[in-house]
Write a structure and sequence with these properties.
352 residues; alpha+beta; Chitinase A, domain 3; 2 domains; 5-stranded antiparallel beta sheet; 11 helices; 50% helix; extended; peptidylprolyl isomerase; isomerase; cell division
Length: 352
């Protein structure tokens, strides 16, 4: 009799689990709170494979790193040259009258940047600190300010300072300094950079595929019941944050409502609630898939994902990563990556 009771209990438990998760071969999930029609074998347009990294991309990456190491020095013994950064005062006049937006003091301008209208920057070349001169220019016909478009103007310009940027040359010593993987020579560093860019290209591919699959899964999902109390709390917190921001900037909540393109605070609140529910839906689907497929990473696998998060964000070590993010956040990110990996392996890419 006792044996029959145990068997009956086991059967009841099995039926309960079946009603929650569906059978082992199921491609969907159905619970009291959530229904996912299909998450396994989802069809998406084929994502292009990660492109091969070129030598030009490697050189561009290194150039950017060298640019970060550039130094500047004050120039006092020569005139302005192309590429210099100058500090200038200027005043623009049309028909002898200063126009709005045409006057500045201690403005920094890099010659050759194309920041100002054609001819302005070139006119500064050849002038020394302390010199004041007039430049006759013309605004382009398609200039945004219609009152100035196509108009002849005169700018009075004073050069007040000149600085020159020096970008270091790549050497074995600098390559070792720039390296995050103990490269000791230029050749080794270039190989390291190629590996970095190749990995980044692979991550871009993975992210594109995961996004496509995730979008399809959310389309196949329906939340039957939200935790409304939690939703309301999140909405209240976000509205309170907006009000606090408004007060700090000397604005009223009505100003914020208008700034975001709404007519009333109720409309804003409804949009915030929609966003909160969308986020909660994603979270519910993620956890449901992770639970059904037993995807939550632990132990060494969790450490692998921590390292991947560190690498993706150019953070050297896991210890450094943990100083920037708390354990719960890192576990949530790792779970998302684990689910993304599983979904990518279990989707079907279809030629466009």
């Amino acid at each position: 009799m006792m044996k029959k009771k145990i068997i009956a209990t086991i059967c009841a438990s099995a039926l309960l689990m079946a009603s929650i998760t569906g059978c082992a071969g199921s491609t969907g999930i159905d619970t009291d709170e959530l229904k996912v029609t299909k998450y396994k074998g989802v069809e998406v347009d084929k994502i292009d494979d990660a492109a091969e990294v070129t030598d030009e991309q490697v050189e561009a990456y290194i150039d950017n790193k060298l640019e970060e190491k550039k130094t500047t020095k004050e120039i006092t013994d020569r005139a302005v040259e192309d590429g210099d950064t100058v500090k200038i005062d200027y005043e623009g006049k049309k028909d002898g009258v200063a126009f709005d937006g045409g006057t500045a003091t201690d403005a920094d301008l890099t010659i050759g940047s194309g920041t100002f209208i054609d001819g302005f920057e070139d006119s500064v070349i050849g002038h020394k600190i302390g010199e004041t001169f007039d430049w006759n220019g013309k605004f382009p016909d398609d200039y945004g300010n219609t009152e100035l478009a196509g108009q002849d103007v005169v700018f009075t310009i004073t050069v007040k300072g000149i600085t020159e940027s020096e970008v270091p040359e790549l050497t074995d010593k600098l390559a070792k300094e720039l390296s995050t993987k103990k490269s000791k020579t230029i050749k080794e560093y270039k190989e390291e950079v190629k590996e970095i860019l190749t990995q980044q290209a692979q991550w871009t591919y993975e992210n594109s595929l995961a996004s496509a699959v995730w979008e399809k899964i959310l389309e196949n999902s329906e939340v039957k019941k939200y935790d409304q109390e939690a939703v309301d709390k999140s909405v209240d917190e976000q509205i309170a944050s907006l009000k606090s921001m408004a007060e700090q900037q000397g604005m009223s909540m009505e100003d914020v409502v208008t700034q975001y393109g709404f007519e009333t605070e109720d409309e804003l609140r409804k949009t915030v609630e929609t966003n909160v529910k969308d986020s909660e839906k994603s979270n519910m689907v993620l956890k449901a898939i992770a639970e059904k497929e037993k995807l939550e990473p632990t132990g060494d696998k969790l450490e692998e994902y921590y390292q991947k998060i560190a690498d993706m964000n150019n953070i050297g070590t896991i210890d450094e990563l943990k100083e920037l993010a708390d354990e719960d956040t890192l576990k949530e990110m790792s779970l998302q990556l684990a689910v993304n990996d599983w979904l990518a392996k279990n989707c079907v890419q279809v030629e466009k």
